[in-house]
Amino acid sequence: MTDKPEEIAAFIELHIEQGPVLEQNQKDIGIVDAIVSLECYDVLVRGRAEHAGTTPIDMRADALLAAAKAIAAATGRNQQDITGRPCRHGYASEKDN
């Protein structure tokens, strides 16, 4: 083992999480051709608290529904991304005004 870059001829990094992808494609080994960077965002979606029984659906401003649509749109857009970068939506919470 060395900490001198000039002494390193090659580097191998194993990723067990790629196992299912390799297995599905009937491959014994995969070659890395891209590196993913992380981007994290905090998003606040505001709506309007209204009674579900008396307010017609087209007059509501449901923040949770808007957030769900945004997540679905981002996921759909990501699936069309030819780079194959992963997209993850990790946490959501809702509270009334």
Give a quick precis of the structure.
With 97 residues, this protein is an all-alpha fold. The protein has 2 helices and no strands. The mean pLDDT is 80.
Number of helices: 2
Helix content: 10-25%
Mean pLDDT: 80
CA radius of gyration is 22 Å
- Can you summarize the main beta sheet? none
Number of strands: 0
Strand content: under 5%
Could you say which structural class the secondary elements and strand pairing correspond to? Answer: mainly alpha
For the terminal residues, how far apart are their CA atoms?
58 Å
H/E order of the elements?
HH
Structural overview:
The longest helix has 17 residues, at 63-79. The protein is mainly α. The radius of gyration is 22 Å and the shape is elongated. It has helices at 19-24, 63-79. It is built from two helices and no strands.
Keyphrases for this structure?
97 residues, mainly alpha, 2 helices
Q: How are the elements arranged and paired?
A:
Elements: H1 19-24, H2 63-79
